[in-house]
Structures are given as structure tokens and as C-alpha cells.
Amino acid sequence: MDNTNQSEYGWTLERFILERQREIPGATGEFTQLFQQIALAGKIIASRVNQAGLAGLLGHTGKTNVQGEVVQKLDVFSNQTLIHCLEAGGQVCLMASEEVDDPIPIPTRYPKGRYVLAFDPLDGSSNIDVNISIGTIFSVHKRVSTGNEPSLGDCLQPGRTQVAAGYIVYGSSTMFVFTSGDGVHGFTLDPSVGEFFLSHPDITLPERGKIYSVNEGNEAVWDEGVRDWVRWLKTPDKAAGKPYSSRYVGTLVADFHRTLLKGGVFAYPADKKNQSGKLRLLYEAAPMAMIVEQAGGAASTGTGPILDVVPTHLHQRVPLYIGSRGDVQDAIDRIHKS
Ligand code: P6P
Question: How far apart are CA 166 and CA 42, in angstroms?
Fold first, then answer.
């Protein structure tokens, strides 16, 4: 991409997508508008997250969501913000949210577009009250149904058919990271301008890293193979760059973002408590899997690629091993060795 016409501020998210769209034959402005709406929702959520302590948005609503998790006020706000920013634009025909039991239709007063959007509006909400990074995750598919109304089947598509995926991490800075099948690119919000500017073009992972990220508090309920794999990572072996360092934030977006930028492996294995793992396929594992594969990494259930899993229901969970290709392969090899 020709960088000569960058302003002193560099590439905004909109300009970047527009330039790329021009390179994609048959691309329409719909994609650009869809991303603008997601980015606007991210800016609004970032603003509230950064002042949550002051805006009386801390704490929870006393309700629980479809996952049985306590719903934090910011969860509700983030979910409503995304729906509000996306429903009127005419790019989306159906949405799915971690916070809503069923697919979210577009009100009849608005036109329906050709995209289906699934999202986790605020991942890591249990960390809201302790000022640890949280995030929004999104996944974009094209509608496949042909009737008058889109249907659940439009949401239940395998990750391999995603046309785009991304996340917004609300941390020491707010970053928008996405792929539309042409590499992974990171943008950092300049709050004084209200724009995301390209800060991490063409993100790629090393073959192996030096960090593993898993909740070792679950060791007692892990299968023996998982216990063996984690013990192996901690066993000194200078030639193999071990022991790896342990890092675990407890927010998928934050743990994944570090893994994407530094390499290594994040895992939320299946265990005796969570037979199918804890993380959700449609709006957590699948979008992160598209991103990591585009960055040269890998994402597995432990028995096969995340992107090949065909969903059977909206909020299904899946075991997740994701990160540097060599580290994920080591995990797969070790967990099945015992
Ligand atoms: P645990 C946050 O609640 C979340 O859904 C993910 O963001 C995170 O990776 C995981 O759960 C943490 O789960 O059981 O380690 O607290």
C-alpha cells in the first residue's frame, strides 16, 4: 500500500479500509460503513469504560445473562450501544450477542444488508470493577439464507466462512484490531481526535513465543494430558527456550492481544467443570481464530482447527488453544500423549 499520502496523523481506520476496498474488485462501500459503525460503538464504549468509576456504571445489574453470568451494567450498555450503532445502517440483516438468548432481528423500519454480525459486547466484564483490560469481539459473515427473513442458520456458519473478524481492547490505550482476510492490522484510538489511527500494520506471530497463558487454578479438573503439557512448558530446557513465562489476565481479549503481539500460547481447555470448554465459539473463539491464522498462527479445539467447527447452537462453547503455530502444535501433541 502506498504510504506517501499519509497525513502527519497517518492512516485512519476508514481511509485504510477505503484504500483496501479499492484494491478488491467488486468491493462496495458497505464494508467500510459496517466497520465505521463498529468503530463508533467502540469509541462510545471506550468513553464509558474509561469513566465507569465516575459515571456510576460500575457494579452489576443484579441480573444474569444466557451464560448464567452476572450481568455488569457496562455489559448492558455495551450491548445496547452495538445494536443501536449497527441496526439502522443497512449493512446487517441479523445480529447475535453473548448477552441475548436468540438472534437479534433488524427492526422492520430499517433496510437489511447482506452481513451477519456476532459479538461479545464486553468480554471480561468480571474485570470491570478492578480496572483490568476488557474488550469487544466481533465476527462478520455474509448472509446465506435466501428467504424474506434471515434465520438462525445465517448465524450458525463455520468460522472458515467469516469475511471479517476483530476486537477492540479497552486497556492502557484503546485499540481496534481486525482482519478482512488480507492480514491483521491494529489501530490505536487518539481520544483527542476521536479517530483510530493505524499503529500496527500487518501483525504476524513468531513460530514460537516464550509465554503460556492458562488458568492454572483449574489444574485439579484438567485431563492428565493438559496437566502434562503445562508441566512440560515449565520444565527447564534451555535449548527449547523453556521454562516459558506465565501470564494470565482473565480477559480473553487482553490475553489474546498479548499473544498476538508477542507470540506464545493461550488456552482454555475443556475440563471436568466445563466439558466443552468455557469460551464461546461464534463470538469469541472463531473471530480470534480467523485473526490468528491471518497472522500466521493457529487455533485448535485440541482435536481440530477452530475454524472448521460447524456451530449447532448460538452460544455453544469450545475448548481453545490459540497462538504461535509451533506452540499450539506442541500443546496438541502433548495433551494427547498421555
Ligand atoms: P476464568 C471472561 O469472563 C472470560 O469469558 C474470558 O474473557 C476469559 O478468557 C475467561 O472468561 C476467564 O475465565 O475461568 O479463567 O476466570
Answer: 11
pLDDT of residue 259: 98
What pLDDT, on the 0 to 100 scale, is given for residue 17?
87
Segments in 24-116 forming alpha helices (H): 29-50, 73-87
Fold of 13-200: Fructose-1,6-Bisphosphatase; Chain A, domain 1 (3.30.540)
Which stretches of 80-179 are assigned E, i.e. beta strand? Answer: 92-97, 104-105, 115-123, 134-142, 164-170, 174-179
Mean pLDDT in residue range 108-120: 96
- For the Cβ of 280 lying below 6 angstroms from any atom of ligand 1, the answer is no
Residue with cell 449497527: 86
DSSP state of 55: T
Contact 90, 113 (CB under 8 A): yes
Task: Give the mean pLDDT of 199-206.
Answer: 96
Name the nearest CA neighbour of 95 among 108, 109, 79: 79
- pLDDT tens-place string over residues 313-328: 999 999 999 999 999 9
Residue closest via CA to ligand 1's atom 14 equals: 215
Of residues 50 and 238, more confidence is placed in: 238
Nearest CA residue ID for atom 3, ligand 1: 124
- Residues 98 and 210: their CA atoms lie apart, in Å, by 32
pLDDT at 103 over 70: yes
pLDDT reported for residue 1: 47
Ligand 1 centroid – CA 252 distance (Å) = 6
Residue 54 has phi, psi (to 5 degrees) of: -95, -25
Q: Domain 211-337, CATH 3.40.190.80 — does that match? A: yes
For the chain, domain boundaries: 13-200, 211-337
Q: Is 127 in the pocket of ligand 1 (CB under 6 A)?
A: no
Task: State the pLDDT confidence band at 9, using cuts at 50, 70 and 90.
Answer: low
Residue 252, ligand 1, Cβ within 6 A: yes
Closest among 81, 80, 83 to 94, alpha carbons compared: 83
